[in-house]
Amino acid sequence: MTKIRTRFAPSPTGRMHVGNLRTALYAYLIAKHEGGDFILRIEDTDQERYVEGAVDIIYRTLEKTGLKHDEGPDKDGGVGPYVQSERQAQGIYLEYAKQLVEKGEAYYCFCDKDRLATLTRTVAGKEINVYDKHCLQLSREEVEAKLAAGVPYVIRQNNPTEGTTTFHDEIYGDITVDNAELDDMILIKSDGYPTYNFANVVDDHLMGITHVVRGNEYLSSSPKYNRLYEAFGWEVPVYVHCPLITDEEHHKLSKRCGHSSYEDLVEQGFLTEAIVNFVALLGWSPENNEEIFSLEELTTEFDYRHMSKSPAVFDYTKLKWMNGEYIKAMDFDRFYGLAEPYLKKALTRDVNLKKIAEMVKTRIETFPEIEEMVDFFETLPEYDAAMYTHKKMKTNTESSLEVLTELLPILEAQEDYSNDALYQTLVAYVEKKGCKNGYVMWPVRTAVSGKQMTPAGATEIMEVLGKEESLARIRVGIEKLKDA
Ligand code: GLU
User: Are 18 and 290 in contact (CB under 8 A)?
Assistant: First the structure.
């Protein structure tokens, strides 16, 4: 059996789109699942779409996500160069296009824009532009004369106009198209660069790629790629086209939704391991219903035969849940390292940040949530006396005023402001009063936090605030309740 070789072939056009990251991940997993090689190739032949810095983004993303390539521009495996513009400079594509011209499988075309514009036809209500093979009629001498005179040209694939072409995709099955639909697509553009359509076939062959993994937007062009393999007499690779990714409204995931790239997600506070895990499930599911997978586990479990062809919905809520699971499972030191900048942004007072970090660890789904969750430690927020009324706790403004007023001297007298000691004090008071815990805890927590939801109970909050600040807040509460 030949060793599996897959490739990730991004175009450096900007941020790493989630769809591209998934392609990279699946290509990586398909190779690694069977001990194969994962190759990185930079497809920069579309000069108009090239974005400065985008190549760095590609390297950085692969490194951060752990998708280590075995070969690439920075790791020669003997089939380089691994950058298409460098391959173009070596004349590789032109050489192979000329081979096809010799075989009658391609031809020079000198038609100008104006003529091409007249070739638009309406088929089934859709406007299409199919080349009419006009230049195929030119004799060898005519072609040579034009080339010698420097007339701009492209090289086109010479596709049959009759019969059908069938190819097999591992996910979508057998696909057959009428050859009449196959346009004579351009292989070499007038600027001398190959089109993606041509370069990908030549490179995949020369690089020994056995499994071509890519987005399903390339599915409709695959018959033409297949024809190219056949024209060269090359073995056709295994095709694995990944399903479309949509947003929750079932539109193609685009920049507009604000979380379409890996970088967007990182900026929104998602962990790389959670992103990778989430992206793995956009189009693939394991046989059991498990959802949490490390990259190593994915490598073992992933089987492209279980990929789905139905569009995968990018469920942001699920991603948040997943990120929360990773945060919960993370060891505390790493968590603290990641949480500290957010804690420091929200809190300038001298409080025990580690204690606060412990409180929020199990409660957040993304790190930026920390700020809003802890800001009450910095300053007591404005709040309404109505917050003291809680139906289930059976509290209202009157009962709360009574509880806080009775507790104030007790808490003033207390020296030990540790959580345990404070808790004992409050429970002793509850027992003496013969009420439920909540009847006391609710007003105390409201007074010291000014919030309905807090990451910890009353006494834990007081421990962090310290005696002076806790008492000051309880006094504010009493005044507020008196006015209510
Ligand atoms: N350069 C193409 C892109 O970025 C890659 C397509 C493929 O994987 O074949 O979309």
Answer: no
